[in-house]
Amino acid sequence: MNYKTRVINCTITFCVLAFCSIQVVAQNITARIDSFFLATGNDENINGNVLIAEKGKLIYQRSFGFADFEKTKRNKQNSSFNIASVTKTFTATAILQLREKGELQLDEFFIKYFPDFPYPAVTIRNLLSHTSGLADLEIFFEPLNKEPGRIFTNADVIPCLKLYNKPLKFQPGDDWNYCNTNYELLALLVEKIGQQSFASYLQQHIFLPAGMINTYIETEKINREDTMSVKCYMPGKLYQSTYMPVDSVASPMIHYILDNFSGLQGQGMIVSTLPDLLKYDNALYTGKLLSNTSLKEAFTPVTLNKEKDYNASLSSRLGKAYYGLGWEIYADSSMGKVVSHGGSYPGIMTLFLRNVSKKQTIILFDNTNWTGIFFMGHMALRMLNEMPVINLLPKKSIARVYGLSLMENGSETAINSLLELRTDTIHYTVSEKEFNTLGYQFLMDGYIQKAVETFRLNSLLFPASFNVYDSYADALVKNNQKDAAIVMYRKSLSLNPGYEEAKNKLNKLLENK
């Protein structure tokens, strides 16, 4: 064998070994990610879908839990989710497309296109970057009082802003404040310049070019029988292990969002699937939707007037983040440039996380309102980049563990569970507010003795709080222990003498003795 042949053989052998080594490393990373999600899923946290890709290649996907608990219909990879505020990246893409065509300029005042807009100093860039100072959902509250059944659309936004008639929260560009109104106005702008509905524009200029055949805008005008669409849930009461359909939750704000605000677009309301969002991701990487120049600008943090600092992160635990044009940009660049957008809708949490330096993408959906997916996404990104993984997941509620145990196993087991978990401060948290909520849930549902036990425990856990004694007294009254209730009201007032509610309840008890 001559020298040249030996060199070629050695080169081939080295390449094969290197390729095998890369494959082993990739398999190890995938196995580690899978173990992480499986462990979390088995702990009844994530209930939804996960997808991870690198350079357009799918490296991990898995579904957890149920799309419909009542029908025991499981989540699948093509299950449809309302992606909530991840929609804002689409709205921003539409605006930047129009800018590339010369149809608008970002530093133009919005009033140029809508002369009756009541805040002349606000620019298109201010709307994209959440630096406008505009009010959010509160602009609809006065009309709602007059017409409780009204369904608002984007055509109502400017009239409601005029009716609201309050100054901006700050001068445009002076500060940063996340605001859905910004993106509803941008959707109006897309419609006016594009001379078609917002839904039609997205379909023609984003969904179809990207190949997103299972993506659409969910509005009151679309009655689509989508068999793959998931139901939205929220955790049951703190003593229940079940989930409640969101439309059964007695919350005015949830009712407003599900019904009255269901006609608003631009800020949310796109329905999509994991495969379709991956197509969108690839279309952004390959220039099908926007030029590299526009994407670079979208991924550049907005600078406030006087260079004032701000933080656009979903949570301080995820590190500092800024906001560009429709995207959050993380300050930590140790893994590359990481951009993302999260979404929250009643019963839905979504995350679209992209490391644009390495073309890594993580997409997470959950249909039980679990905020932990935001932290899971960032932990998975660290695993993908072989970085030390810090436990970012929110701590679990001992109040929930206690409530479930008290309901199912009795007082002794519940107390033992609390004592055992209380020392695990890494994974569990003891919250006065949650124990108080648990107590009132028991009380309102007729479990009076359990409410008494819970409030008594809360007074032992947080003896310096005036509120725990007031709540404890409420339960004692319901349990016909009026003398003990008087003692507790007095204890509450000794800690907070100005607490009028406790004074009134105490005086009423004393008068009836």
What would a concise description of this structure say?
The protein is of the alpha+beta class and 513 residues long. It has 18 helices and 16 strands.
CATH superfamily of the largest domain: DD-peptidase/beta-lactamase superfamily
The strands making up the biggest β-sheet line up spatially as 2-1-14-13-12-11-10
Name the beta content range: 5-15%
Strand-pairing-aware structural class:
alpha+beta
Oligomeric state, counting identical vs distinct chains: single chain
Overall average pLDDT: 90
Instruction: State the major sheet.
Output: 7 strands, antiparallel
Q: Uncertain regions: pLDDT < 50 for 5+ in a row?
A: 10-25
How many strands in all? 16
| Approximate helicity band | 40-55%
The separation of the N and C termini measures: 109 Å
Q: How many domains, as an integer?
A: 2
Write down the Rg: 27 Å
**What global shape is seen?**
globular
Tell me which CATH architecture of the largest domain applies here. 3-Layer(aba) Sandwich
CATH topology of the largest domain: Beta-lactamase
The number of helical segments is 18
Using the coordinates above, name the CATH class of the largest domain.
Alpha Beta
Secondary structure elements and pairings:
Blueprint: H1 3-42, E1 48-54, E2 57-63, E3 66-68, E4 73-74, E5 81-82, H2 87-100, H3 124-129, H4 141-146, H5 157-164, H6 180-194, H7 198-210, E6 216-217, E7 233-235, E8 243-245, H8 252-260, E9 270-272, H9 274-285, H10 292-298, E10 321-323, E11 328-330, E12 338-345, E13 348-355, E14 360-366, H11 372-384, E15 396-397, H12 398-409, H13 411-422, E16 428-429, H14 432-444, H15 448-461, H16 466-478, H17 482-495, H18 500-511
Parallel strand pairs: 15-16
Antiparallel strand pairs: 1-2, 1-14, 3-4, 5-9, 6-9, 7-8, 10-11, 11-12, 12-13, 13-14
Helix pairs in contact: 1-11, 2-6, 2-7, 7-9, 12-13, 14-15, 14-16, 15-16, 16-17, 17-18
